[in-house]
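Chain A, query sequence.
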Amino acid sequence: MSHDQPSSSQRSLAPCIVDTGTVINKQDMHRLLTDIGRVRYVHTQDGVLTNQGEGCILEVFTDALRATLVANHAMYLNVQSFDYMELGLTDENEPFFDLIQESRTLRLLPLTNHLMEEHSHDLNAAALEAVVAEVLAAGWDAQIDDEDPFSL
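Chain A, predicted structure.
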């Protein structure tokens, strides 16, 4: 008794996108958008610039009944508002994310750099540790002073 192994042409592989490409899966779009942070955005309709500015992505969600909202430098992005997302690099080799729905494009240009943020988090953690150590030391000094029977 033998089992037929599926040939490589019958197996479907998940897409692999590196820096440029088209993302159609809503979960993949959600994952990419969730950790972008601060962005410069450019909104065009029928190829005509309608709005641009800077904002911070505060929420990314998937809900057919809720709107994507961009106001007051805050962005609430609903991946259901878009048909697909194009990933690419600008002429300056900076990443962009184009959210496309028919003749509307919302281009997001990240202003935050995860590599730089990771380094700053390490620095902030070291500074926080130093402050905690000082506070604990001061607390111990105060406790010792309170236990001194000869203090007034």
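The beta strands are 21-23, 38-45, 48-61, 69-71, 74-78, 84-89, 95-101, 104-110. Residues 25 and 84 are 8 Å apart (CA to CA).
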